[in-house]
UniProtKB/TrEMBL annotation, chain A:
InterPro entries registered for this protein in UniProt: AAA+_ATPase, ABC_transporter-like_ATP-bd, ABC_Transporter_VariousFunc, P-loop_NTPase
Positions of the ABC transporter domain: 5-227
UniProt GO MF annotations: ATP binding; ATP hydrolysis activity
The protein, known as: ABC transporter, ATP-binding protein
CDD domains, sorted: ABC_DR_subfamily_A (cd03230)
Domain of life: Bacteria
From TrEMBL, chain B:
Organism: Anaerobutyricum hallii DSM 3353
Keywords: Membrane, Transmembrane, Transmembrane helix
Transmembrane residue ranges: 16-35, 55-77, 112-137, 157-183, 195-219, 239-260
Lineage start: Bacteria, Bacillati, Bacillota, Clostridia, Lachnospirales
Protein's name in the database: Uncharacterized protein
Length: 232, 273
């Protein structure tokens, strides 16, 4: 068990808006962690900071001991909330790209997942439906044997059946000593796969707890606790 | 990694640029073929039929426009592609690849540079296709040997001109990419801000150009264009060499500033929306 992510007094300000305010957080390896909070709470900001897409305005963060950079990007697999592939490419070309740049990419895993979903590798990405595009991206991300997976709202835009598929893909494909950080506001769908939850509100961490503790010791589902904590 | 980045960048921008350049060559070829079988452009333009005359004029006009704008198109498209691949949705992939911002920048600049060179070749070939003839070739040979003769008599001037020519595409690409990274520092209207940055850098270049003319005495009271009108001892290279030298130094510094600036912004000031 080691610390895969460490944030120390991490802050991010956009103009006048304080998106993250003095966050201190440690995440351990080998866990599936839910980053839960309402829209605009800072979940995506934190994930973008982890991936080096934003520069912090204060504090530090370390991924496996490294600040965001080439070394951290080698071990972090990121699924953003948007289509980030060049849509003029074919699915097969996207797979080759991932294989080219990421040593930890497992091509056979990707191919078999595509086949199971009947996604044609020769299809151009722009011809696929929104849900299929998201599945392709998820397959690419989960086919990497990464140490930290950051999934930003992986199930928000898809139908319930697809959600189940995505969640089972996540469970079945991650490495045992890896950490998966899932950011979402759809709590009841994901809570069954989570080991830990981190509640974030207005750029502050308001809670960090084991799911078991919440369920058995407090006797409530994470969804219920969420509604309590984030009551409007 | 740099090689891989270059490969993907090359493939991506060539998807559009290759057919367009192919079209230009084809257009030139077909036009030349048409002119030849019709007895030449003079015959077509002076024909009795006003329709054919007008259409020929339009064809010539279109050829001029297409050939002269291919380089500008390539230039702007390289910039647009850089912006799209690094600073929009695709940036979520580009900037999370395990590569340094320098490698990203360099691979894209090299791909753009190579296409600018291809532009020069394509434009030259197109012009040759359209107006090439043995007469033109022999005239050009005479022109070229005269040029070489003058060049060998003015070695410093020639060297400076050649260096300036070689540096100019590097400078053009450097300024383009720096303008785009600068523009993306703005929180909104990034494309507009990039255009503004480009104009700003152009203004800086012009101001420097003016300063160096003044400093080297091109606006002196006893000299006109740095030529002492009371003396008989001058040559064109005497009065151009100083500004060529300072201009070159300025451009080299500008290339360095654009590179370091772009790299800094992509490393420390990337704020992907």
């Amino acid at each position: 068990m080691s610390t895969i992510l460490e944030c120390k007094n991490l802050s991010k300000k956009y103009g006048r808006k304080q998106a993250l305010d003095n966050i201190t957080l440690s995440l351990e390896s080998g866990k599936i962690i839910g980053l839960l909070g309402p829209n605009g709470s800072g979940k995506t900001t934190l994930i973008k900071l982890i991936n080096g897409l934003l520069a912090p305005t204060g504090g530090k963060l370390f991924i496996n001991g490294n600040t965001p950079g080439v070394e951290s990007k080698k071990i972090v697999s990121y699924l953003p909330e948007r289509t980030y592939l060049d849509e003029t490419q074919k699915v097969s070309e996207a797979i080759t790209l991932f294989e080219d740049f990421y040593k930890d990419f497992d091509r056979s895993r990707a191919i078999s997942m595509l086949e199971k979903l009947n996604i044609d590798s020769n299809a151009r990405i722009k011809t696929l439906s929104k849900g299929t595009k998201e599945k392709v991206q998820l397959i690419l991300v989960m086919s990497r044997r990464a140490k930290l997976y950051c999934l930003d709202e992986p199930i928000a835009g898809v139908d319930p059946a697809a959600r189940d598929y995505i969640l089972s893909t996540i469970i079945n494909n991650y490495e045992p000593d890896s950490t998966i950080l899932i950011s979402t506001h759809l709590i009841s769908d994901v809570e069954n796969i989570l080991d830990e939850v981190v509640f974030i509100k207005n750029g502050h961490i308001v809670l960090k707890n084991d799911v078991e503790d919440i369920r058995f010791n407090q006797g409530k589902s994470v969804d219920v606790l969420f509604r309590e904590v984030f009551k409007c | 990694m740099l090689g891989k980045l270059f490969k993907y960048e090359w493939r991506s921008i060539s998807k559009l640029l290759l057919p367009i350049h192919g079209f230009v060559l084809l257009f030139a070829l077909l036009s030349r073929f048409y002119f030849t079988i019709s007895g030449g452009t003079d015959a077509l333009l002076n024909t009795d039929s006003t329709i054919i005359g007008t259409l020929t004029m339009l064809l010539i006009f279109a050829l001029v426009i297409v050939i002269s704008s291919i380089a500008i198109f390539t230039y702007i498209y390289s910039g647009y592609h850089f912006h799209k691949n690094v600073f929009t949705d695709q940036g979520y992939l580009t900037n999370t690849l395990p590569v340094t911002p320098s490698q990203l920048l360099l691979s894209k600049e090299l791909a753009a540079l190579l296409w600018l060179l291809i532009d020069v070749v394509v434009i030259s070939i197109s012009i040759f296709i359209l107006v090439g003839s043995t007469e033109l070739f022999s005239n050009f040979s005479i022109f070229w040997s005269t040029l070489i003769r003058y060049a060998s008599q003015t070695p410093l001037f020639t060297t400076l001109i050649i260096i300036a020519l070689v540096l100019s595409p590097f400078l053009a690409i450097g300024i383009l990419f720096f303008s785009i990274t600068l523009g993306n520092l703005a929180s909104s209207h990034k494309v507009l801000a990039s255009i503004g940055a480009y104009v700003g850098i152009y203004v800086v270049q012009q101001i420097f150009g003016l300063i160096q003319l003044v400093v080297w005495g091109y606006f002196g009271s006893t000299t006109i264009m740095r030529v002492n009108i009371y003396s008989n001892n001058y040559s064109f290279e005497t009065f151009l060499n100083p500004i060529l030298i300072t201009g070159l130094i300025f451009n080299i510094i500008l290339i360095a500033v654009c590179w370091m600036g772009s790299k800094y912004i992509m490393t420390k000031r990337l704020n992907l929306q």
